[in-house]
Write a structure and sequence with these properties.
Low-confidence stretches: 1-9, 11-23, 36-72
Distance between the termini: 30 Å
Shape: elongated
Number of strands: 16
Strand order of the largest sheet: 4-5-6-8-9-16
Mean pLDDT: 83
Number of helices: 16
Structural class: alpha+beta
Radius of gyration: 32 Å
Largest sheet: 6 strands, mixed
Length: 495
Amino acid sequence: MSELTEILREAYQKKEERKPIDFSTLIEMIEQLYDAIEPEVTAGLMPPSSGYAVVTEESERDVEVAGNEASDEITVIRRPTIKITELWGKMENGDREIMEALMKNIAGDTIEKKVQSVNEFLMKEAPPPGEGDISKIMSYLIFLDTFASIISDYGASVSGFLFEAFLAALFGGTSIQVDDPAQVGARPGSLPIEDVQLALQRGEEATEIVPYSLKVLRKDGVVHGSFKNIVDYFLDPAEERKTDTIVYLIVIKDADKKEGGGYGSWNGKLKFYEFVISRDNFLQLIGAPTEVSIYDYLPITSSRRARQVLEKNPAAIRGWPRYKTPEGGDIPEDTEIPKGTELLRLQDTGQTEKIIKGSAAKLYTPEQYGVVTGKFAEAPALDRQVFAALTDTKGYGSKQKGGAQWSIGHGVYTANEYYKGEIDLDPEVLKTRAEDYTQSLNASIVAIFNALGDLTDNINTYFIGSENQNRKVVGQQAKKDAEVLKREVNTVIKT
């Protein structure tokens, strides 16, 4: 949060009536700041009617501002510097209120629709000069700035945690980040699997509270989770849990393929996938058995001369001899088999079977899986009592902290039905769109935000800068910034 913003907020909080700050109040506060600057610093400054350069945040190219007209040089509007904080995930605090206000113009009442609206902003042509909607443009630019920072400027664990808080503020209302078992009434000894509860709008007045678990992964990453915790989630009758389903939002940091195999570094694109786990589809997603082909020795007549070898592929029959005698006897390796010989050949029978292997083997034994599936099949409804059969599996009772880990590979969650869209956060893409949309704004609005940002920077530098800095020059520039701010506000807001 900038120093000027703090000053404005403190002044606001001191007002007994707690009315919104209007532009005249803003100018009054700025004039109070002038009075705080030493007289010798403000002497000989440029008069309000003079034209002068405003330096933008992203570019050092000057833009001549005079009245309500700007030169043809491209400038980028200064966006507020947002303090990224976990407080966004909690209701009724100043940081959350500010972020909610900034994000209110991001259209869409679901993750998919919000992703679509952000893409429309990135892809569509900016409005003609002077016709841009400042509130919408600033909301989308701040969304992109903040989201890009969360994803790229922090380590994986911190990035994921801040993303949860950001998402709660994005949907606002009663949306919260879940960081305490008590918030959702989790069973004793169990941790919440939901990271956020989002208030999704269902009609003009109806709101549905939907629990989400968020995962930010590299390309082809695997989704992991505690088996005990997810079983407990579906056994938990606490009212705070809101629903008997859980939505998994998977955000993939996309990467391009490298020569020779593998992937390079993140290319700036985020791909979104979303799937729901319920009691009904639990066994199909969590520790589902692997369906494999059944191979057996079937009779054939050799159509050409052959040689006995050991199978190399597929893995299911690797090392098995390819041929046997009609009676099932062994044929030594490298034995030549004449054309027209009756014998048995190892082949795919066209049938399959389900086996417990890989991550599923950490959760169930074949016998335990059979018991669970049997109880599920016999039950008229998968209520908590029936679902409790999963507490007798080895994955639930694992001595590892939190129980054994279940996993879902990218081949499952990247199915077309789960795809919700992508957002390109490449810095060059964002800079170009910021320039395009800045051109669509009224020149005075651009000047207001840029002068406010420059004023904040120069006041900070004046009061807390190093001894080597020329405080007089900085103070003079702060006065120039304030004059621009005052004049352009008067241009936009007619008295």
